[in-house]
Design goal:
The chain has about 220 residues and is mainly α.
Length: about 220
């Protein structure tokens, strides 16, 4: 608040006494200086809640607003973040998308790719182990297993057990008898169309997130 605005709130006798060089005038100058930092924050307060505009020190707090605080879970409050601030901003920006697809393969892969910046995560469901999920981590993200495990535990359906492994899936056993190829497959279009009732999801912010082209999987 400017000194002139503060002065207008005073009784007329005080306004006359707040002339240049007076004690009251100096006090009004101090009040103006004290208000300035808070008014600067309020003038741009919306930046505090923007994923790509908020200060680095506030990004971890915003993860609580979008239920992604498990990503920054640490034993001490002063512990460094387990991933760069830019990755954390991407997770906050896509918080609504991740909440919508939580409990599905698409949601888990998207969260893992946003947090690590690595693609190629493979989700296997062994036919001999119902309600079990194997998450195969690509070599580029093998040094972040603790982060990957926290995300997998939070994104999986509650009734599903899970294990996180590194490396490529084993090759299927070879069959000496080649199978009958049958009729040639019908060529598919280059880009699949979204299923009916599923809106195409565009990337939010700076990270690229592909739209889900398959019908939404029902969480177990």
């Amino acid at each position: 608040m400017r000194r002139a605005a503060i002065e207008r709130l005073l009784p007329a006798a005080y306004q006359r006494a707040a002339g240049p060089g007076s004690v009251l005038g100096a006090l009004l100058d101090v009040m103006e200086a004290l208000h300035a930092p808070d008014e600067a924050v309020l003038a741009d307060v919306d930046a505090l809640f923007g994923a790509y505009r908020t200060p680095d020190g506030f990004v971890a707090y915003l993860t609580r607003w979008v239920a992604m605080d498990h990503v920054v879970a640490a034993p001490r409050a002063d512990a460094p973040l387990p991933l760069p601030a830019g990755r954390l901003r991407d997770l906050v920006a896509h918080g609504a998308l991740l909440a919508r697809w939580r409990g599905t393969p698409y949601g888990m892969r998207t969260a893992l790719e946003l947090a690590t910046g690595v693609t190629g995560f493979v989700l296997d469901e062994p036919p001999d182990r119902p309600f079990h999920l194997v998450v195969r981590v690509p070599p580029a993200a093998a040094d972040r297993l603790a982060l990957v495990t926290r995300i997998v535990e939070a994104e999986k359906p509650a009734a599903v057990t899970v294990e996180v492994v590194t490396g490529d899936p084993p090759d299927p056993p070879s069959d000496p008898t080649p199978p009958d190829p049958g009729p040639p497959p019908t060529p598919e279009p280059d880009v699949a169309e979204p299923a009916a009732g599923v809106a195409s999801v565009r990337a939010v912010g700076r990270a690229h997130v592909p739209a889900p082209h398959d019908p939404p999987e029902e969480p177990s």
